[in-house]
Amino acid sequence: PDMSYFKFIKWILEDRPVIIYGDGNQSRDFTYIDDIARGTILGLKSLGYEIINLGSGVSYSLLQMIGLIGRITNRNARIIYKQPNPADVEKTLACIKKADSLIGWRPQNNFDLGIEIAINWFKENRTSLDL
Q1: Alpha carbon distance 2, 56 (integer Å)
Q2: Between 111-125 and 4-13, two packed helices, what is the crossing angle to 10 degrees?
């Protein structure tokens, strides 16, 4: 919910330390927003009541994301590790089989492309963000 990748992008571009709560191996199913929007629209078809997960179906660790941001921006991240948040979830991963079978949805954008687009968007819009 706090769009951590934008914070990481900002800190890395500003050569500030990246703060991670925990060891950085906690992982998330990052999904590009256009894919979620397309899946939401496809989900409007009349199916009755169904619960459908939208996600990438792949989980990436925070360290993998920070490493990718560093490679794309050609900068090294300096990481500061802090105590993990006890309420933090170790891993999220969406099972997207039902989305494929019921509404014909699969993500079209991969993690690397999504992060690259996010970096470019951030560079163009950084003054309007409150991070």
Answers
A1: 19
A2: 60
Q: Which residue has the tokens 């999904």?
A: 31
Most distant CA atoms of the chain, gap in Å: 50
Q: What are phi and psi of 54, to 5 degrees?
A: -115, 130
Contact 82, 21 (CB under 8 A): yes
pLDDT in tens, 89-107: 999 999 999 999 999 999 9
Cβ-based neighbours of 52, under 8 Å, separated by 6 or more: 39, 43, 98, 99, 102, 103, 105
Tens of pLDDT, residues 56-69: 999 999 999 999 99
Q: Which tokens in the block code for residue 89?
A: 């979830």
* Nearest-angstrom CA–CA distance, 122 and 19: 19
List the beta bridge partners of residue 81. 20
